[in-house]
Design goal:
about 110 residues; single chain; 3 helices; mainly alpha
């Protein structure tokens, strides 16, 4: 008989696609939002629409990546607990509010 780790220490390997999704929505996606916001801040008035579309498309990709991570790749919380759609809704709400605040500041104060 083999010794299995206790349930709270058990952790399955994440497929590469799931790992890439997590890296995107946790780090690279957020960093790209900040880079785009910096672009909005320093832009000319002629390109505000394009920078804004890029910014909000990135927000949409972050929301979608988190959903796919939870739904198809067994997404987890910071404490390695299984994440559910409630976590996704809270993440989406917080991200959208924070992104809106950053976007407003970049558009209004930039240029």
């Amino acid at each position: 008989m083999t010794d299995l780790p206790p349930k709270d220490q058990e952790h399955e390997a994440t497929p590469v696609a799931g790992l890439l999704l997590r890296l995107f929505w946790m780090a690279f996606g957020v960093l790209s939002l900040l880079a785009i916001a910096a672009g909005l801040w320093t832009r000319t008035s002629e390109v505000v629409l394009w920078w804004s579309l890029l910014f909000w498309a990135n927000v949409g990709l972050l929301v979608a990546a988190r959903y796919v991570d939870i739904r198809y790749y067994g997404g987890e919380t910071v404490d390695f607990e299984p994440a559910d759609l409630g976590h996704w809704r809270r993440h989406t709400a917080a991200l959208t509010l924070a992104a809106f605040a950053v976007w407003i500041i970049a558009v209004m104060a930039g240029g």
